[in-house]
Each structure stands twice: as structure tokens, then as C-alpha cells.
Amino acid sequence: MKALEFLSFGIPLFAGFSLMVRFIQRSSFPGVAFRLPDKVIAAHRKAQATLVGGKVVSIPGGMLVTSLRGWIAGEIVWISVVSVSLAVDPSLSSAIFSFFLGLGLGFCTLFLSIREQAKRQVERIRSALPVASFLFSLLLEAGMGSHSAFQEVGRAIPKGPLSRELDEISRARMLGISREEALERSRRRIPLDDYQIFLNLVHQGEQLGVGLSRGLREHSTKMLEGEGYRAEAAAQKAAVKLLFPLVAFIFPAVVLIIFSPILLNVWEMWGQ
User: Fold this and answer.
1) How far is CA 53 from CA 43, 45, 184, in A?
2) Is 266 a member of any domain?
3) For residue range 139-153, what is the model confidence (pLDDT) as tens digits?
4) How many angstroms separate the CA atoms of 94 and 89, rounded?
5) Cβ contacts of residue 194 below 8 Å, gap of 6+?
6) How confident is the model at residue 128 (pLDDT cuts 50, 70, 90)?
7) I need a labelling partner for 43 at 20 to 30 A (CA). Which of 141, 168, 243, 258 fits?
8) Are residues 118 and 148 in the same domain?
């Protein structure tokens, strides 16, 4: 295939696949974007658990990701690379090269997608943890046990990764798993210092029999103060991020509007 044929066929095809990937990643359909068979979904989830469990790559917070959008995006990239390459050169060597090239690009797409989703899940836990800690302390002050308090907090806070973790800790007690082991598993899944301190307070309170409500309330207050500091830092970074579009787009337009009459007059004077 000649270069002109490649430009007229290969590039639009790859662009179409790229747009499809972005659409699937931002899709608001519940669950998986396509109605995949249960066995295929189970195989993808098992592969994802193996991938983010530290055996292949280490992704902080990767075990919190439940969506399969990264797998769908990676597989689409793989298929698109192979399709474009075979359309350009349908030889055996090109097929083998495109297979491994697409496999590498698809894995990179999968890795970046899971890492981005893991960061979002950790941030969601960071924002919901102060309220959960404060509510947990109130329930303990009301005389409720820690097991029941975990269940009530998991139901009270908005649905998300933190509510799933609290439900998982409560479910572990019902399955006969010790509370210490359940807390350790949750500690490995969530790489967040504030959450580690929260679990340590709960574990120490159950192990030593000391009151938890005051410590949890102080911890929630510190986390709220930290959220305020992070909001201030984000506001300060916003001014720096706005500098480039201001200089590249807004400032030249303002200068052109202000000085255009002067430039036109100078142009007319030089023309005379």
C-alpha cells in the first residue's frame, strides 16, 4: 500500500478507533459497556486481580478499581493497531510485528487507565473518610459496637470505594475471618495514610479496650484541616495553570484589539 493510500485509509481508521476508546472510557452505561458473557467478565476480573495484586505490576490503589473500561480500551487499541498494520502490509512479518506492538500499546493503555482510576478511587476515599470517621465516633458514643458501627457507617455514607471497604470489613466477621486479618487486608488495598491511621485507631481500641470516639473525632478534625490545606494548594496551582492559555491565547488577542487602530494608521501612513 502506498503512502497516499495509507493516509486516506489507515489514519482515519486509527482515529475512529481512538474516538471509540474515549467514548467507552467516558461512557455512563451501568456496569460494563458491552453485555459481555459472565465467563468473559469473570476472566477479566481475575486477570485484573492478578495484575494489580503486585505479582505483575504495582499500582497503588489498583485493587479498588472494579471497572473493566481499561481492558476494553486496551483491547480496542490492540485490535486497531493490528488492523491498520495489516491494511498497510498484509505479510506474515508485519502481522507478527503488529501483534506484539499492539499488545504492548494495549498493555500500556490498560496500565494507564487502571492507574488513573485507582487515583480517583483513592481521592474519593480521602474526601469521604473525615465524615465516616466522625460518624463512627458518634455511633460509638451512642453505645453501639464497632461491628454494628461499621455496618451503619457503610450504609450512611455515599456509595463508593470507602463504603465498599467498610462493608467488606463487616462481611469478614460474618464469614469467620478475624477482625485483625480483615483490617490488614483493607490496609493493603488502600495506600492512604489517613486511612491507615483510622484502621490503627480501630484496631487499638478493640485490642486494648480503650475509648475510640475521642481519637476518631480528633482524627476527623485533622483530616478536614488537611482537606482545607489541599484546597488552598489547588487554588494556588490554578493560577499557574492559567498562565499558559492566558499568554498563548488571551494576551495576543487583547494586544491585537488595543493596538490594531495604531497599526492600521501606521500602515496607511506608509502606504501614502
Assistant:
1) 15, 12, 15
2) no
3) 877 777 777 877 888
4) 6
5) 126, 129, 219, 223, 226
6) confident
7) 168
8) no
Residue with cell 478511587: 121
Q: Which domain holds residue 69?
A: 3-122
**Do 63 and 113 have their domain in common?**
yes
Domain assignment present for residue 234? The answer is: no
Judge whether residue 235 has pLDDT over 80.
Answer: no
pLDDT of residue 1: 47
Q: What's the pLDDT score for residue 28?
A: 45
Residue 63 pLDDT level (bands cut at 50, 70, 90):
confident
In a domain, 252, yes or no: no
Q: What are phi and psi of 159, to 5 degrees?
A: -65, 130
Q: In terms of domains, do 115 and 148 share one?
A: no
Q: Which amino acid belongs to residue 61?
A: G
Residue that is last in its domain, among 179, 205, 221: 221
Query: Structurally, how many domains does the chain consist of?
Result: 2
Based on the fold, state whether residues 7 and 103 are members of the same structural domain.
Answer: yes
Q: Which residues of 226-238 are buried (b: 16+ CB within 10 A; e: fewer)?
A: eeeeeeeeeeeee
* The three grid cell numbers given for residue 270, joined into one nine-digit string: 506608509
